[in-house]
Amino acid sequence: MRRRSSARSRNSSQTKTDPPIAAVILAAGEGTRMRSRRAKVLHEVGGRALVEHVVGAAIDSGAAPVIVVVGAQAAEVERRLREFEDRRRSGAEPSLLVFVRQTERRGTADAVSRARGALRRFDGDVLILSGDVPALPAAALRALIRRHRHTEAALSVLTAEPADASGYGRIVRGADRRIRAIVEHGDATAELRRIREINSGTYCARWTDLRAALSKIRPDNAQGEYYLTDAVRVLLAKGEHVEGMLHGEPAELLGINSREQLASMHRLMNQRHLERLMQQGVTLLDPATTWVHTGVRVGQDTILHPQVTLEGRTRIGRDCVVRSGCRLTDVVVGHRVELLEHTVASEARVGDDSKVGPFAHLRPGTTIGPTCKIGNFVETKKAVFGRGSKASHLSYLGDAVIGRNVNVGAGTITCNYDGEKKHQTTLADGVFIGSDTQLVAPVKVGRRAYVAAGSTVTKDVPPKALAVARSRQTNVEGWVERREQKRGRD
User: To 5 degrees, how large is the angle CA 180–CA 184–CA 188?
Assistant: First the structure.
């Protein structure tokens, strides 16, 4: 009798009477055709590594555990996936990831065999997924699981009919439309290569049947590898049923084997995410030039102008305007915010009803409060602005705590670095900083104090005081006339 599912309760496709579902993700390959020093599954689309998309889909389909077969750059793949899972789950949820090594790449069947130890006591169904197929949604995996169980198949395979089937294994069906074999492209005859239906490399199988079939596979093929597709032959020979489910979106099943395919996948996943945003009430003036990572969220009635790039885990609220050339990475933006042209920000926060830019640079640790204004060519770093404060022109504000309703004049600099350590500048509520001021940290300017334009402030300024820290002006009468006379003599 099969055990009950241990998949997460949030997945409504699993019921208490369903057998458990696990996943094995093949992510050991180097990807030599990528011409890269980086393992193929670590290349990114939509702001995530290829294998992160696959792991996310497996978890969302209800799989537990999720076993990742690693090889090339195994430690880095494991690290990235641990961080990815940590971002997705709450602290109380146990990890679903298990990593196993395939040190010598001997084919897909050998890779799946590496998971035997992790599935020693498992009695249920197993998804077999490729780590370089990032666009396959969890909904498709759930549909495959349902079809697999409904037909009581020993193994089910997700198939497609792409316009170009080159490089893919072909699905060979009999007159009754049942699957008779899966033949790899390299081993297929010219006649078989005319078959349009291809093997996506995505399977669902009864683990007990698949485990037995794996032990009977031999490397009797042109590549000398252990093909997982040979499990079909073994299972059919035993009289088991092998099911094929045609997927209507072939592009979602495509693996990444080259930079050209990576670029195509970028476009596909970006387009898919932009369509979701528009369906949720976001206005895109030019989707063709707008790039938004899959982890980004944008609120209703926000307008994205052409050539906007939103990366990482950026969050933008309602009724915002993001104008052309803006690039935000891991930024949280409140409601009714306007980001003017070519604002660049990373790991920063912008409060409700504020305006930033054009050509502003918000570096990590910046927090802009509500109703603030950060103007053109202002750079901030670890700067906190209280409600209603302004820095409208040509300033650098680093390691600064700025209170409410502070006005920072053009050309102001917080001199925060002494060559060894960073120091903080504090401007209390209501402070007015005149243009071309240097604030040499550590320094504090008290509540409602003024600093005269052109000052270099090295000492704390008391509340409601005026600080003047500049040399006395001297006018030399007749200096120009004497200079011109001297030039004439020369």
Answer: 85
| Residue 14: band (very low, low, confident or very high) from pLDDT cuts 50, 70, 90 | low
Whether residues 248 and 117 fall in one domain? yes
User: How far is the C-alpha of 136 from the C-alpha of 58, rounded, in Å?
Assistant: 10
SS3 of the chain: helix, strand, coil, percent, to 5: 25, 30, 50
- Asked whether residue 70 is domain-assigned, the answer is yes
Residue 203 included in any domain: yes
In what side-by-side order are the strands of the sheet with 432-433?
A: 283-284, 303-304, 321-322, 338-339, 355-356, 373-376, 390-393, 407-408, 432-433, 450-451, 466-467
- Classify strands 361-362 and 170-173 as parallel, antiparallel or unpaired: unpaired
CATH of the domain at 415: 2.160.10.10
CATH number, domain of 119, equals 3.90.550.10
The residue-averaged pLDDT of 21-38 equals 92
- 186 shares its domain with 317: no
- Please give the single-letter amino acid code of residue 367: T
pLDDT at 205 over 50: yes
Total tally of structural domains belonging to the chain: 2
Q: Note down the domain range covering 372.
A: 276-467
Catalytic residue among 241, 266, 342, 393, which?
Answer: 393
55-84, pLDDT tens digit by residue? 999 999 999 999 999 999 999 999 999 999
Domain for residue 261, yes or no?
A: no
Find out whether 134 and 179 touch, Cβ atoms under 8 Å.
Answer: no
- Torsion over CA of 325, 326, 330 and 334, rounded to 10 degrees? -150
Together in a domain, 282 and 244: no
CB within 8 Å of 486: residues ≥ 6 apart: none
Residue 266 in domain? no
- Mark whether 393 is an active-site residue: yes
